[in-house]
Amino acid sequence: MSLSGVSWNHYYPVNQLPTRQESVSGLFPQHPHSAAFFNHHGAAPHSRPLNRPTHGHRSFNMNTLSTDEMEKFQKLSNEFQANVQGPAVSTKLSSSMVAMEYANADPAFITKTAALSVTHPLVRTMKGDGNCGWRAVAFGYFENLLKLQNLVLAHDELNRIKSLNVLLDRTGQQEHLYEIFVDATEGVFHQIIEAIQNGIIDDTFLVEAFNEEYNASAIITHFRLLTSAWMKLNALRYQAFLSLPVDQYCATRIDTVKTEIDEVGLQALVDGVIEASGFAVEILYLDRSEGDVVTPHLLTPNRVTAATICLLYRPGHYDLLYAVEPTVNMEPVVNYQYAMTSNYSPWDQGALTFDVNSSLMSIPNLMMDPSFALAPSPMPSASPSPFRVSPPHEVYAPPIMHTSPPPPPISLASPPPPRMSAPPAPLSSLPRKSDGPQIRLNPLVMKPNLSHSLPVTSPFKKYSPYNQAHFQNQDFEPIHWEPSDHRK
Amino acid sequence: MGSQKRIAKELAELTESAPEGITVKLADESNLYIWDVYMEGPENSPYQNGTFHLTLTLPTEYPFKPPTVSFRTKIYHPNVTNDDKGSMCLGMLRADEWKPSSRIAAVLQFARQLLAEPMPDDAVEGRIAEQVKGDFARYEEVAREWTRKYASGRG
């Protein structure tokens, strides 16, 4: 875990207050916003280390206030309503709007937001109703799953998330109480799977699903409950960062309906629910700290990843950000092909090492991998032809994969050695997953159905030398099984 | 609709094995969202031997919003409004403390526990709360009298 080493700056813009913080013990026990309110108007602690208690305002001396002032503050606090305008999840917007919001602000914000709109041109805003952090991560997760258009991965992830019910059972949750939450999550998975089968990459349906309140609440509650169970089962990992016993923390901060996620909860959500997907979760901090750019922080292990959920954090609020992706979906596929065919040789090797590796085939459990087992016939024959319609992105779809026989074994016989020295694509550029298009683009490399006969679906996740847990990885590190570690 | 599925299961569970001293049924068989609850006053409380009629109302957003509980039977208690609403709203019943993983059974147990142990510091009836703190015997006396008067016949 990398919770330490981050400075958590809490400056609360008026409309960005977290909707609930710890109550000021004893003083205003009935008014959940008291702490947030005072945190804002008082001298908010700067660069607060994480392992200090999260209910702030210690630097604020209540005794200096007159009764009148206290009453006034209390009244304001009682009447405080978070800014809950707008949709729960917006469509992608230009991130220059973030810069505009800070046009008259501190120069640090102006510089950083200007730089941000270059590196991350798009933003998706989350409603500030106390669930923005949860919603951002959940939406970012599903959105990436759709974007990758990898049917096997989507099925794998559905099964993985469903298997996490075990965590709920082990922490005493009852199925008849939590099943509707799981149902809602499953519903979104099925929508995504159907979309991938139909070659639909447009995420409108996902935005709609997250704007349907009941449905979205159920999904968010599901993620909250999984996080809560995960924390309870891994209490040792988180207790040091909390000012409350884990059980109590979960009861008051995680299991509730609209308590904003804090840094510890976010790390637990990522650890317990997201990380095993292989996706990365990164936060960009927009605050007044030193520097000309937002401060990045990676919540997942530093590894090659198929997708990154990128959060923009402004004190008390999370949104989603989208880095520049010069090659994804926007550029015509022919550009790749020209580039590849003019210099296909090294690319050829690189592509093969992604997927075709005899050493992989000798791993005993490989054939047990559900993604592999599914591979020969993942596409129902009813699946429509990718040529059926022709929005730009669909030209990527491989024309022959549904019907062709598996590739000749010859391509398996003499694979080039894994090129460990080849650095993975930078995190924010090229599509990071070889789930088809990258390989099929070059006819000289492409054997029909190659990618679908091999476990290309999660090359970085499990059985690839790009995975640190693979024995051929340069930085090989065996996976340590821990009795307390019941992720799967 | 998710709320109906969940409510139906909770109702089935409660009908089958209700917590001690509590019985539930739908106020109207065609509406899952309004329940009639009959609650026996806990032993060793001034409400003993009384049966209190409560209405439990579930929001359509259930379980993302808490149920509301109101006493139909008049009751002398610092945490129940002494009006025609008879509402009780504290602890797990408050929206910001409510957890979607909480059960209706737990709500009812919580309400019954509150009869055994009033929470005068979180009161809605300040005068009764002061009595609980300052003159407990007198509070018990009045509560017992009200129980006899309003809660001795069923319903």
TrEMBL record, chain A:
Protein's UniProt keywords contain Protease: yes
Disordered: region residues: 398-450
GO CC annotation: nucleus
GO biological process, one term: protein K48-linked deubiquitination
Record bears the keyword Protease: yes
Pfam families in the cross-refs: Peptidase_C65
Descriptive protein name: ubiquitinyl hydrolase 1
Taxonomic source organism: Aspergillus indologenus CBS 114.80
Automatic annotation (TrEMBL), chain B:
PROSITE patterns membership: UBC_2 (PS50127)
Record key words, sorted: ATP-binding, Nucleotide-binding, Transferase, Ubl conjugation pathway
GO molecular function, one term: ATP binding
Organism this protein belongs to: Aspergillus indologenus CBS 114.80
EC assignment: 2.3.2.23
UniProt-listed InterPro entries: Ub_conjugating_enzyme (IPR050113), UBC (IPR000608), UBQ-conjugating_enzyme/RWD (IPR016135)
Superkingdom, natural source: Eukaryota
The protein's name in its UniProt record: E2 ubiquitin-conjugating enzyme
Gene3D superfamilies: Ubiquitin Conjugating Enzyme
Domain UBC core, residue spans: 2-152
Leader sequence segment: none
